[in-house]
């Protein structure tokens, strides 16, 4: 029996083919534009490379032919239906080949690939496969439990207060026994004193016992979270085998001799991160062989050994893992690059003469540039680096390229260990907490207002002898700002070689956060990378350092606005942690003060002791639902004028009518959520 050599290829190829099928169908139905065609080109290119790795020439050939057709429509022209039909037949052919992959018969009539059976019954249960989505949901459950536990810990003050009250009651009764005017009264007071003593005895150990138990549960939840986070990490050596095959097959196709060397495979990465960076590395390795390593005869003429070298070294730098791919080939052909960028119309011939190597590399990563004179199954269309750009962009990765003419080139890709859990610096701006990945923070500093250099192109400061851009975080988040302090803290963040100083109201220290993506429909500012919860369960934004540096450098942040005399207060009522966090982030970023309630019952209690300008209410909640909450508040004189917005996944006409009859001033369906529309509605309701 043999292991399945196509195990991982089959999974990846099926996913790509499904996306190709959907994309071509969209083109057949009239979709057009550069983006959908470009995406299909990248998918076909990735599939072609993966097929070459596992020696599936038929699938690679079909993917190559698919590229041939798609490349004609890169300009955005509509794809004719007959061409779409041809492409669909190619996709169908690949589906058929994938379905029969690994079932070729041997000489004895048995399948070529067989699944190995476990050595024993118990061994079959030694390990299981867990989907990453299930692991993420586990981590979300742990985070939710941690938040609820933090709420319970806050209630311990009430237990301590009850203990103190029992002591006061006992003291009061003790003094009254001596003053009793009759034997009957004294007996009654004595009985009450005994009850008070029992109450005090019962309450006295509760605060320490509950606190100890809560802290123990908190530690155990932290262990579960850390262990689950570790289980999401896989060794980077998992990508070495496909990379080795890519180098080997590319070299054979081009008649070159290449040795592939790896180091650092023991480092571990989040599975999602490694899967994305693998696609980038496959293309980098392929380019190193196709464009870097010379043919044996050329290497001999240059005095180089016939066997070229491509190496991949993986190293750990703080909370990031760096992949360094080196080759000892000819280096980047700067002259060919100059001709290619001019031919593409990206720069003029005169401007191209003045471009530095770094400028050329940035243009390369924009994609669509190729120095290959002919189109082959290995290179020629300039699509390959589109794969690198897309993968690294999704990962917030940093890419650096270096080259020495005739001596080789190096591509360095730096990615975070995990996109889920990271060490962060916590800052505060306008009452809003936000996190910055710790490994992108150069330094925290204090700035005097007089130190800020003002100019029409934006503000800047001197840092380490250099001028770097400066602006307030409040401006990046479009918050009202009115700085009166002469001295304030700032965080110097970096993105690649660039730095910027971001002014904040307060530095709150460091913490390990669990990053949560914000749904695309929320439409948050580009400087926001996601969201997280602090130790008390309060939501905070996670900022994107690269976007912050870009915004600071462009000097296009929103102008400073005077702070209003009173900030409107909104009560968000929802039993879903994620929804509460999302809505609070949106509203606080828009300048509102936000309070939270996890149930309609809790919201009614808060509404009777706090003044609110608006209620944002979920419909489906345990106990009292949103409809009933709205009806009750309409019937209460003190709350009847506070407008209510229902936010729910229920979108039937009957539900909307019921909300209107209950007294809701607006009805927002989550599936049709639009942040701009929600904020506009709120502004209309809060005058």
CATH architecture of the largest domain: 2-Layer Sandwich
Q: Total domains, how many?
A: 5
Strand order of the largest sheet: 2-4-5-7-6
Shape: elongated
Model description:
The chain has 687 residues and is of the alpha/beta class. The chain has five domains: 7-124, Up-down Bundle (Four Helix Bundle (Hemerythrin (Met), subunit A)); 135-231; 251-416, Heat Shock Protein 90 (2-Layer Sandwich); 420-563, Beta Barrel (OB fold (Dihydrolipoamide Acetyltransferase, E2P)), CATH 2.40.50; 564-687, Rossmann fold (3-Layer(aba) Sandwich), CATH 3.40.50.2300. 45% of the residues lie in helices and 20% in strands. The protein contains 22 helices and 22 strands. Strands 2-4-5-7-6 form a five-stranded mixed sheet. It has a five-stranded mixed sheet with strand order 15-8-9-17-16. It has a five-stranded mixed sheet with strand order 10-13-14-12-11. The longest helix has 26 residues, at 206-231. The protein is elongated. The termini are far apart. Mean pLDDT is 78; it is low at 113-127, 373-383 and 556-564.
Concise structural overview:
Helix content is 45%, strand content 20%.
Q: What is the strand and helix layout of this fold?
A:
Elements: H1 7-28, H2 34-53, H3 57-70, H4 81-99, H5 132-154, H6 156-178, H7 183-203, H8 206-231, E1 233-235, H9 240-254, E2 258-263, E3 268-270, H10 271-292, H11 296-301, E4 308-317, E5 320-327, H12 334-343, H13 349-353, H14 357-365, H15 384-394, E6 398-404, E7 408-416, E8 421-429, E9 432-437, E10 441-448, E11 459-463, E12 466-472, H16 473-476, E13 487-495, E14 498-503, E15 506-514, E16 528-533, E17 539-543, H17 545-554, E18 569-573, H18 577-589, E19 593-597, H19 600-607, E20 614-618, H20 626-635, E21 644-648, H21 653-662, E22 666-669, H22 675-685
Parallel strand pairs: 2-4, 9-17, 12-14, 18-19, 18-20, 20-21, 21-22
Antiparallel strand pairs: 1-3, 4-5, 5-7, 6-7, 8-9, 8-15, 10-13, 11-12, 13-14, 16-17
Helix pairs in contact: 1-2, 1-4, 2-3, 2-9, 3-4, 5-8, 6-7, 6-8, 9-10, 10-15, 12-14
